[in-house]
Amino acid sequence: MGKKKGKASFDEWHQTVHSEKCQRNFTGLSGAMEPEGAVRMWQRSEANGYRYVTFLSDGDSSSFKAVCNMNNGTGPYTNHTVVKEECVNHV
């Protein structure tokens, strides 16, 4: 790690480099970001020509629950149930 820089240096970086390359696509609490991302991916899957059938998780069930609660609780695909798998070697 390099030498720490001050607020003025950060502000300059944020206004030039960061703002040009990064777009904010989520506003909310950090704990809600992962479930929201999962829902967005599952929502657009059929439009991209595929369906997810298994939800691989690290044990956090909030994202899985959010996906299952899509479409008033019927899940992302009304005629297919999403199956949850646990990643046992998750580090």
Automatic annotation (TrEMBL):
Domain of life: Eukaryota
Mutator-like transposase domain residues: 15-91
Protein name from the UniProt record: Mutator-like transposase domain-containing protein
Organism: Portunus trituberculatus (Swimming crab)
Lineage: Eukaryota, Metazoa, Ecdysozoa, Arthropoda, Crustacea
